[in-house]
Amino acid sequence: MAIPSSHASYRLSFISDIHQNAYRLGREVARAKEEGRKILCSGDYLSSICFRGRKNKIRSLLDESLSTLDTLGPGNVVATYGNHDPEKHVNYVMKTECNIAYVHGKRMARLKPSTTADAEDRSHHELSVVGFGGSERRGKSATELFSRAFFGSSVYSYNDIYASVKESLDGMRRNDALYDTILLAHQSPYGILDRSLFSDNWRKLPEGESRKAGSKALRDVLDEYSPFLVAAGHIHEDPGIAVRTSLGEQPMEAKYDAKSGTLDLSKIDRERLRDGGISVVMPVSNASEGEIIFGIEKKEKTGIRLPTFYLNSGSLGYEGVHCDVDLDVSGGVEDGKSRFERVLKFRFIHNK
Fold this sequence. Notes:
The protein is of the alpha/beta class. The chain is built from 8 helices and 21 strands.
């Protein structure tokens, strides 16, 4: 498929679950500066363990992480917050970190590309980032009730999450911008890269057992809408990527194993992807890298089903795992038809 000359490139680094690890965060920010990357952060700057006896220092603890991210400068950081980060304190600290674009609910951000074919004007190639921080209320576990009562941890009802994210994505679809949209959440959608080895009370499950710990509200919304990329963290044990070629189907997952530094490709059906116009090349140069290429002829405003990609970037703070994504976007009008092509390269990194 011939693609017109309009072109934009994005160099991104997705991180999540810092949990007060200032050393690893500082090292990642330094690397992003050196490589010219923008950081998208899914939150959990704090850990409830750090709060014991230090409730009055929550804002200063938050500021340690956010001020480090702020040093990347304007337009280079988009962030939401996690269930360990009390919303009212995040709102307060974010006001002083003026270089961070904060997304949650009705707050959204625009992401400019690193390079374009026209260096004078990058506005036509911007991506939208919408978000929702915190996690979904899963019941009345002792840990959740304790955290909410004493620290104001950010957990929300199914209805709150569903209504907010649906409103954001519906607005993007009405403006014909849904496929230029990234949903930055803290919690993965239910059943997609959300395998947890711990119970609701953070107790290790018996050997060989796991549970799905994602947000059912997010999953239900994403059964109706297809943004380009959904990025999250929260579940430390299940980093990887997934792709869904049409609404309602179960995404195919490629899970990353930090111990071996490899992606498990056993559940990737390449024929099914080819039927959806997607070409997959994995690995690129080592077992933690991959490349996804696809082109779409856009026939009408909302009448085409587009693939959605899902990313769980793991925990930067505890396991030292995060993911780089390089995105090249080409598109325009050819023979009266709107066409575009995208090349998505990803690389999981394990900093021990």
